Amino acid sequence: MAGTCERCGADGATVSLSGAVLCDRCVDNRVSEFTGMLRLPDPPADEVFTGPDARPHRFRFRLWRAPTGVSADAAEIDCPTGEGYRFTLLGQHDADIDALLDSLREQIKAGVSRVDLTPNPHREGWILAGETVSGRFEWNDAGDHDQPYAVVIDGRRLSWEEFGNAFEGLEGWGFTLHLDDLSQALSDETGVVGDIAHRPASLLGNEPDYLPGEDDDDAFLEAWDRAEAEAVDLLQMALPELKDEPPPAGELEDAVLGLRAGIKGRKWPHRHMSRAAGFEPARPVSSLELWLGAAGGLIAMREESGLADEAEASLMAMQNGDWLGAVVGLVRAGIGASAEPQDLVGYINRCPEVEGELDYDDAEAVESAFELILPAWEAAGAVDGTRRLTALGRWGLPRALAWAWNGEFGSR
Predict the structure, then answer these.
(1) Which of 58, 184, 193, 240 has the smallest C-beta neighbourhood within 10 Å, fewest atoms?
(2) DSSP labels for 198-227?
(3) pTM, whole model, 2 decimals?
(4) What is the pLDDT of residue 379?
């Protein structure tokens, strides 16, 4: 449900960030401040596309920065809630916005030009116009627990009963159900999607030489890799006494047993930790790799975590200096030290390896990100149920942070 932006007062605010409901423009400004990414342009004005059945379809566009890139959305308006066409195209963070929108328009034209339903000639309702049908699932706002979803085909909303009736005359036929993510990504050949979508653009108060939006992506990635390597070196220099320490006897093994059981159960936060770390169900991982990925996966996500967009955006907005200051400060405070978000912010502000201090607004956003990762750290045994550092966390969090930066911390 859209509301009023708590920062600028604009209507249509839908994103909750740091406890405030903001419009896309204010969210984009905030992300730009944190990451150095260029601000997105305003979306284009509404456009009308006409299908083969002569029905006009007016679309409203949205441009917003998702955790994994720039999302260009188009939703049909002037139709009942829950009906109408919707299209989404995902580009990388430095995408050519004009090209992204042109590709989205082509997707809209292809979508509205296809008609999968035709009026039933014998009674009210619809039947299939051909041998295939495509659409989307839509939440049933009526609160019918027996039918929590409806389907939308050709922009029309159908109940499951109406959808079943559309197969009239096909008794005895076979079928294949194929599910697609409606958020489509452009291919690498278009220059719109790439690894850069997973990389924020600031580190320890010093930005890399290249930022998203410049032409030379390879040079940017090379600069970013250098910055990550320097961050790992700084982490090792800050905590040299831990480099050769073995893990606490028995604690790593016990934590991994709990992690494997939690991941198998696919519940929060285990499922999201595993997805963020890029673990594939068919590929076994060692106990150490599993623990490092569980504790470090949400710091620098290898893949989409499955968290809500605003939650992933909150983690994406974190600077590497925030993570380093928090981990170094927590470890220096010792076993039993508080890992509450406000205390982690205090460690950042007092860490001599990190430049500057967080102002009030930035601290609030950083605390929100820590609230998201603390359940993962607790599941990994790095902090206990009262959010205090454990012996395993003292040994492991620096190693998990180095893992997130594609490096190693001392001996494993």
Answers:
(1) 240
(2) G--S--TT---S--BTBS-HHHHHHHHHHH
(3) 0.53
(4) 94
pLDDT tens digit string along 122-162? Answer: 889 999 988 888 888 887 765 555 666 788 998 889 988 89
Q: Nearest 5°: CA angle at 324, between 343 and 359?
A: 55
In angstroms, rounded to a whole number, what is the distance separating the alpha carbons of residues 103 and 72?
A: 10
Which pair of tokens denotes residue 236?
């090792």
Q: Which residues pair with 295 in a beta bridge?
A: none
Q: Are strands 183-185 and 86-91 parallel, antiparallel or unpaired?
A: parallel
What is the residue whose two structure tokens read 């008794």? Answer: 171
Token readout for 153 is 């085909």
60, with CB counted inside 10 A (0-12, 13-18, 19+), is: middle
Contacts 24+ apart (CB under 8 A), 126-134: 126/153, 126/156, 126/158, 126/162, 126/165, 126/166, 127/165, 127/166, 127/167, 127/168, 127/169, 128/166, 128/167, 128/170, 133/166
Q: Helices (DSSP H) in 67-209: which residue ranges? A: 97-112, 160-165
pLDDT value at residue 1: 56
Dump pLDDT digits (tens) for 20-37: 788 888 888 887 876 678
Given a cut of 50, the residues of the chain with pLDDT beneath it are 185, 187-217
The tokens describing 65, both together, are 């920065």
For 220-275, the DSSP string reads HHHHHHHHHHHHHHHHHHH-GGGTTPPPPTTHHHHHHHHHHHHHHHT-TTHHHHHH
Q: What DSSP character marks residue 378?
A: H
Beta bridge partners of 136: 152
Q: Is the dihedral of CA 183, 110, 98, 42 positive or negative?
A: negative
**Residue 131 one-letter amino acid:** E
Give dist(CA 39, CA 92) in Å, integer.
14
